Structures are given as structure tokens and as C-alpha cells.
Amino acid sequence: MNKKAICFKTIETHTLGEPTRIVTEGFPKHKAKSMMEYKEYLENNYD
After folding, report:
1. Distance of alpha carbon 27 from the chain centroid
2. Predicted pLDDT at 1
3. How many whole angstroms separate alpha carbon 45 and alpha carbon 16?
4. Which of 7, 23, 37, 45 is the most exposed place for a label (fewest CB within 10 A)?
5. In sequence order, what are the beta bridge partners of 11?
């Protein structure tokens, strides 16, 4: 495997006791037509 490292900047919080993470920088650009399509793209390529 020859994958390029990706660096994300995030803010991590707890909302009503649940952990949340907000990515503020480093998110890959996309051409998805919907957020669901983008979510699936990220799961398949970055998860």
C-alpha cells in the first residue's frame, strides 16, 4: 500500500454526554451531489 498521509485538524467535544468531532481543516474536497453520497465516499476511501 502506498497511501498519502492526511492530516486533519479537529475540535472534539461532548454534547449531552455523546462525543462529537468537528473537522475544521484537511477534509478532502468532493464532487458528491448530496451529503449522503459524500458520507459513503468518505467511508469507502478514508475510514
Report:
1. 6
2. 54
3. 30
4. 7
5. 22
